[in-house]
Design goal:
Blueprint lengths: L7 E5 L4 H12 L3 E6 L2 H13 L4 E5 L5 H15 L4 E4 L14 H29 L8 E5 L12 H20 L6 E7 L8 H4 L2 H9 L12 H8 L10 E4 L6
Parallel strand pairs: 1-2, 1-4, 2-3, 4-5, 5-6, 6-7
């Protein structure tokens, strides 16, 4: 198992779903973890669960759609836990809706969270990783959570697909720009995993038809990303940057 003893990680969107799982994986591997999200009550319960297992964690409220709030939140994480070396930009929203009826507000919210939130999360983390020595030690890791929607044409999801394609393009460009600092910037592009965002849809007749259209006729579970995620977070990713790893159980085939 990847050892992250002595490392400090930040996970956005950590109150549920994949963010919650990532936070627990990092803690189980020995990292101290700052869990960030808008739902403070849920964050507190996850921090308590981590501490009950012997881990170290803090809960910090953050709305990634507010770029002015990201830097101060990372400062609080470092004050509480120490120099950060792992940043997981996981917070995201669905952004579904037909293009002809998409409101400006819904469009803006999708890009504010899925794209702007990732950019400023990565940028503010990179600044601190350079200043605190994690970059020079080649331990700086930024993991952006994208989606197979970045490469697919999905009816009713044009805005969501565009936002995730932007995350992949951003990941590659930041990896190139920050290569001189030895900061690893990578993305994971998951297939369909049942989460709070999509569980209602997959319970419908249309959702069940979509599942039957997948080559393996199933959704993935949250553990599907564990191995790739931990590789990108640890020392095994020393020579990996600018990658967008698709993990989808063949759903896009």
């Amino acid at each position: 198992m990847t050892s992250l003893n002595g490392r400090v990680a930040v996970v956005t969107g950590a109150s549920s779903g994949l963010g919650r799982r990532f936070a627990h994986l990092l803690s189980d591997a020995g990292a101290s973890v700052a869990l960030m999200a808008r739902r403070e009550d849920r964050l507190a319960s996850e921090v308590e669960a981590i501490k009950e297992k012997g881990g170290q964690a803090v809960a910090l409220p953050l709305d990634v759609a507010d770029p002015e709030a990201v830097g101060p939140a990372l400062d609080k994480a470092e004050d509480a836990l120490g120099p950060i070396s792992i940043m997981v930009n996981n917070a995201g929203v669905g952004g579904d809706g037909a293009a002809l009826s998409m409101s400006v507000e819904r469009y803006d919210n999708t890009f504010d969270v899925n794209v702007r939130g990732v950019f400023f999360g990565a940028r503010e983390a990179a600044k601190r990783m350079i200043d605190n020595g994690a970059a020079e030690a080649e331990r700086a890791r930024i993991i952006n959570i994208a989606s197979i929607a970045a490469f697919a044409t999905l009816p009713g999801l044009s805005v969501y697909c565009a936002s995730k394609a932007a995350v992949v393009a951003m990941t590659k460009n930041l990896a190139r720009e920050w290569s001189k600092h030895r900061i690893g910037v990578n993305a994971i592009c998951p297939g369909y995993i049942e989460t709070e965002i999509n569980s209602d849809w997959f319970a419908t007749e249309g959702g069940q038809r979509q599942i039957q259209g997948f080559p393996r006729r199933r959704l993935m579970d949250e553990s599907a990303l564990d191995a790739a995620f931990m590789m990108l977070a640890g020392d095994d990713a020393r020579f990996i940057t600018g990658a967008a790893l698709t993990i989808d159980d063949g759903q896009a085939l």
